[in-house]
Amino acid sequence: MRRSLQRNRGRLATAKIIFLGIFLAVGGRAFQLQILQGEKLMRLGQRQHLKEWIVLPKRGALFDRTGEPLALSMESQSVYARPHRIQDVDNVSQNLAQNLNLRVSDVRQKLTSEKPFVWIKRQVAPAEGEKIQALNLDGVGMFYEPNRNYPQGQLAGQLIGFVGRDSEGLEGLELKYNDYIRGETGSSVTERDALGRRVLVQGVEGLQIPPGSDMQLTLDTSIQHLAEKELETSILKYRAKAGVAIVVEPYTGEVLALANYPSFNPNNYSTQTAEQRRNRAVTDSFEPGSTFKTILAATALEEEIVGREDLFYCEMGKYHYGGKIIHDTHPNGWLSFAKILQVSSNIGFTKIAEKVKKERYFKYIEKFGFGKLTGIDVPGEVPGLLRRVETWSPIDLATHAFGQGISVTPMQMVMAYAAVANGGFLMRPYVTRRVVSPRGEVLLENQPHVVRRVISEKTAKLLASMLQDVTSEGGTGTMANIEGFDVAGKTGTAQKADPVHGGYAAKKRVGSFVGFVPANDPRLVALVMIDEPEVNVYGGVVAAPVFRNIAQGALRRLAVAPEKTLPLPTAPKGTDLPAWRAVKRTAPTDGAVDGVPDFLGLSLREALEKAQTMKVKLRLQGNGYVVKQAPAAGGRWNDDEVLVLNLQG
Amino acid sequence: MAAAVSVQTPKSAGAERARLRRSPKSRWRLVAGVLLGMGVIGAVLVHVWLRLQVVQMGYVLSTTSKLQSRLEQENRELKIEFATLTSPDRLEAQARQRLGLAAPEKGQVIVLP
Fold first, then answer.
1. How much is the pLDDT for A176?
2. Does B107 contact A74 at a Cβ distance shorter than 8 Å?
3. Whether residues A144 and A162 fall in one domain
4. Alpha-carbon span A529 to A550, nearest angstrom
5. With an 8 Å Cβ cutoff, are B106 and A621 in contact?
6. How far is B82 from chain A (nearest CA, A)?
7. Does any CB of chain A come closer than 8 Å to the CB of residue B54?
8. Quick one: A170 and A294 in the same domain?
9. pLDDT of residue A618
10. Residue A579: its pLDDT value, please?
């Protein structure tokens, strides 16, 4: 028994020693791994199961004043390759080229490159991305990149600007407000499994990178569209080189529309020229021509140097002044100040300028904001060119009187007219209403800002009534007239400087019209400028109708009721019904089975009910009452035939 | 075995049994040790189970996060599509060409006060 116990003790001792040895070995190894090599091994381990995910910035959206989106962001897939990992270059090249609509040789060249990483195609279409993912090619991967999209296409393209591939604003408002709307780039370290899949054991907080702020503009998409369309129509009609149209609210300085031609689509910015990208309304300055006469008229009235009915002799169209001869388009004799403005006499305004004196005139030119930036929140604005009054020669006073020898931007000009429209206040124009963070905080809000009072309310009212005469019978701007409204404005036809030969180009002109409506209680001020029209150069012909069409549509959009009651469309003779009801059927054909049934004069509901009863197939065009039908009533009728009804009213 | 029992004296066998039999104190120690061991093993198992749950939830979260991203992307695409389809340029073309509509004539728009 004792021997047995002794033997057991011996075994236990041996086991203890063995276990102690094992323990020491394990402990030693643990010490080596945890303490001696701990840091290095931890790093290696983390590299294997942790991965840093880059969270790309989500750019904020741009909306118009009614909430219509103008710029939105989404994620696009870009296809990349790691050439050294690709075994079968020919096959992979073939596959990629076929699915991404690329040339095989181009793809092969990239795949045989020495570079460790090459882009195959950036920002591919979603369908292309899916095809590439389905191929599951070794060494080929997809990367998500932010992609800016402008759903309205070319609408306000120059104003909005565009964004580069790295989500940085490069032009327009995208550049100006880049810091607000860009959003942040973030990164998050998450665990991944043996297959490289992300395992979010730490939660998703790290992935929640705040997106950029949204921006609401003062633009109205409908008015902007109308301005662009009308501007383009006129430019094509008169074969002009370029053009600008601006619509502004006179009391606030909010820009409702800012159209440029040639147009620019920011969705394809890389394929478009710098000419197309330029926002001419603020980056280009022009000699304004006769539209500038309003500034001299305001000076003369405000300083009470000239009265509305004061008479001036207009020298029958030819006047020697300052060593030059000043011409009028039409010869005139004695004219009142109001009439001089109405017919836009250069000679008359030269004589008024003589009475005003150049120092006083210069002071008002500056007060109206010319020669300085308007302060609009759009990049690239220029101040125009206003020479110091000390350098003016006698002829300079005359040329400044009718808007030559000075350059102004279209934006400066429209704001000067806004000052006349709103009772004498020069406002700062702006296109951004507010910037709102993702949490709903208003980060920036533009409020109407009065720069200064330029003229008194009395002068502004008087000048507005004189400008109303310009669009009345006998004025140069009759084509700007809008039925039901009083329009105040001024036409301009300016000569263009010839930078090559000096002086003015023989045939190049800038035709323009600036005005506001309704004249007594203005809701909008608009400028239309057509650069180098060929078919006709006069502002009253090329620009005034554009103003009329834009203003008419804009007033409708702003729900401004006409000041005068408009008649309904006239009815044909012998009837007192409106036109659409006057075509009431003449012979009852209800239930007629042999001929085409008569739908004329029926309302939409009546027509549908009748068609259902008679089992007639209809195609409807328009709304209201049936004014026309094809085939006409009474003719031969096949049961399979479709009756086309035109409705109006 | 019977032979072994036959050589043992009753006294020495009893002493051995007594020695082999644990005292109550040492028995409690043993029970406590076993319970502690089981507790440790249980805690380790719970820890491992929790860790597995965390990993499992990590997978679920990852899948949901991907789904969320995909839906957000789809939402953005739909917003763009909607905005493109309702752009004034397209609406005007559709209204004129497909529906045969025209701009209202004078007097056809009545602005209510």
1. 95
2. no
3. yes
4. 13
5. no
6. 8
7. yes
8. no
9. 84
10. 46
Backbone phi and psi for residue A427, each to the nearest 5 degrees, phi listed first? -100, 155
Q: Which of A155, A161, A156 is nearest to A173 (CA)?
A: A161
Decide if A153 and B88 are in contact by the 8 Å CB cutoff: no
- Categorize the per-residue pLDDT at B4 as very low, low, confident or very high, splitting at 50, 70 and 90: very low
ipTM of this predicted structure:
0.71
Distance from CA of B41 to the nearest CA of A (A): 19
Question: Which pLDDT band, with edges at 50, 70 and 90, does A253 fall under?
Answer: very high
Handedness of CA A274, A277, A283, A288 (dihedral sign): positive
- Dig out the tokens for B111 from the structure: 């602005």
Average pLDDT on B75-103 reads: 91
Boundary (domain end) residue, out of A189, A215, A241: A215
Asked whether the beta carbons of residue A74 and residue B105 sit closer than 8 angstroms, the reply is no
Q: Give mean pLDDT, residues A423-441.
A: 94
Q: Are residues A585 and A478 in the same domain?
A: no
Amino acid type, A449: H
CB contacts, 8 Å: A75 with chain B: 73, 76
- HSE-CB of A54 using CA atoms within 13 angstroms: 7
Pick from A3, A73, A200, A481 the residue to mutate for testing the B interface (most B CBs within 10 Å): A200
> Is the confidence at residue A580, as pLDDT, over 50?
no
* A332 and A427 together in one domain: yes
Residues of chain B in contact with residue A199, where contact means CB-CB under 8 angstroms, are 55, 58-59, 62
Q: State whether A486 and A393 are in the same domain.
A: yes
Does residue A14 belong to any structural domain of this protein? no
Element (H, E) at A634: none
Inform me whether the pLDDT recorded for A403 exceeds 60. yes
Could you tell me the CATH number of the domain that includes residue A390?
A: 3.40.710.10
Q: How many CA atoms lie within 13 A of A185 on its CB side?
A: 9
**A294 three-class SS:** helix
Decide: A590 and A553 in contact? Cβ < 8 Å.
Answer: no
**pLDDT top residue among A133 and B80:** B80
- How far apart CA A70 and CA A433 sit, in angstroms, is 14
User: How many Å is the Cα radius of gyration of chain B?
Assistant: 44
Question: Could you tell me the CATH number of the domain that includes residue A587?
Answer: 3.30.10.20
Establish if A395 belongs to a structural domain. Answer: yes
**What is the tens place of the pLDDT at every residue in A534-557?**
999 999 999 999 999 999 999 999
Q: Is A5 on the interface with B (CB under 8 A)?
A: no
Number of domains making up chain A: 3
Active-site positions of A read 290
CA-based nearest residue to A77, from A130, A116, A118? A130
Same domain, A365 and A506: yes
Q: What is the DSSP letter of A113?
A: -
Residue A415 lies in a domain: yes
Spell out the long-range contacts of A135-140 with Cβ–Cβ below 8 A and sequence spacing 24 or more: A135/A95, A135/A99, A137/A86, A137/A92, A137/A95, A137/A96, A138/A85, A138/A86, A138/A87, A139/A81, A139/A82, A139/A83, A139/A84, A139/A85, A139/A86, A139/A92, A140/A79, A140/A80, A140/A81, A140/A86, A140/A92, A140/A96
A120 and A143 inside one domain = yes
Q: Alpha-carbon torsion A460, A462, A466, A472, what sign?
A: positive
Range of the domain at A148: 53-215
Q: Tell me, what's the pLDDT at B9?
A: 57
Average pLDDT over residues A181-186: 84
Query: A153 CA to chain B: closest CA distance, Å?
Result: 8
* Domain shared by A198 and A296, yes or no: no
- Going by pLDDT thresholds of 50, 70 and 90, the confidence category of residue A588 is very low
C-beta separation of A402 from A350 below 8 A: yes
Domain end, chosen from A191, A215, A239, is at A215
Contacts of B59 in chain A (CB under 8 A): 197, 199
Instruction: Tell me the whole-structure pTM to 2 decimals.
Output: 0.77
Compute the radius of gyration of chain A from its Cα atoms.
Answer: 37
